[in-house]
Amino acid sequence: MNFIKRSVMLSVSLVLSAAANSAMSAAANSAENSAKNTAAISTENSAKSAVEGSAWSEFVKVADYIEIKADRVGGSEQEKQTAEWIASEWKKAGYDVTMQPFSYKRRSKTYNSQNLSIDIKGQSDKLLVVAAHYDSVGVKSGSQGLIDNGSGVAALLSLANLLSDGTTLPYTVRLIAFGAEERGLQGSVAYVNSNDTSNMIGMINLDTIIGGDKLYVHSAHSKPYRCDYIKETNYVSGTELREGIRTVSKQLYPDTPHLLHQEYKGYPEGETGAWSDHSPFACSGVTTAYIEATNFALKGKRGNDGYSQVADKAYWDCFDEKNLTSCNRDDEKAWGEIWHTKFDKKSALFPVMKDHLKTQQQQNVKVLLEFVKQANNWVK
Ligand SMILES: [Zn+2]
């Protein structure tokens, strides 16, 4: 982070001195104008590369960290250590971190986990939540949880760093890292049951935001989720947050914007199920959007439901490229899935898709950063 800030300052000062010199020596209007234009473009480019640099360096940092904390099962010692590590990263960026301990029961055993959050002050006290779970399914599965959900955590670290310079925000941005998502959304449920959600104007859930073939953004299902575990239920499924993110993504990345998935059985276009941390918020009256990297064109185990993430045949036992499914559906085990498998770790993913991960992580962070700066255009 320091390196990035330094390099921005350095290039801005070089540009400024270049502009001053050229104005002095030539004193011609055209020279001055072209210097101004060059200055504007260079400043814009260096801001862009600062965002891209942060997006990737934070991801690599998380990837290295979770190689040694791969077993971050909700309620475990490694999960707790990971929470403390995220908190220390946020503190380094200058924030006060709020820890929310909670416990949950599973097969009559009690587990202790924790959520953590920071607030980045905006012009309004209304809260725009951006959240990601930091636990993993555990090494028994072979997974270290790099894309699920090291990618979401890394985006939270980047946003904290990039917004620590006093950027003007219309709403206060609250970044939350949830524990125990893989154990049945325990952290996000505990969060909405013990925090006031009436001041929240939106919640953006980041869960596995890279690694799949394409980037998507979903809204909550128009048919209400089961919400009986929420103290005060007020289900909403508005699409304004999803559409705002999509619009910003289309402006910044016209060739590869965040997509709506096509309609599939039980799921209208762009609408998702209750399986991640957005769901307790939708139940509590908060409009949600959910960013996810996968590939809904693939016909997986249960159809085109987005659970199969990649068309690369390395992730299938037998891939039928023409029909985008397994050539042996009865015997297929791999199904193009990375999450919760032995593929979800640095040693398996970096050799084959490092550039792809980088491009997607950079796009997600850039879109999120731009979106939170103009969120008042989309959510009130
Ligand atoms: Zn996840």
UniProtKB/TrEMBL annotation:
Q: What GO biological process terms are annotated to this protein in UniProt?
A: proteolysis
* Position of the signal peptide: 1-25
Enumerate the spans annotated as Peptidase M28 domain.
115-347
Keywords recorded for this protein, A-Z: Signal
Entry-linked SUPFAM superfamilies: Zn-dependent exopeptidases (SSF53187)
User: Its domain of life?
Assistant: Bacteria
Alphabetical list of Gene3D superfamilies matching this protein? Zn peptidases (3.40.630.10)
The protein's GO terms of the molecular function aspect are:
metalloexopeptidase activity
Under PANTHER family, the record lists: METALLOPEPTIDASE M28 FAMILY MEMBER (PTHR12147), PEPTIDASE M28 DOMAIN-CONTAINING PROTEIN (PTHR12147:SF26)
The protein's name in its UniProt record: M28 family peptidase
Organism name: Psychrosphaera haliotis
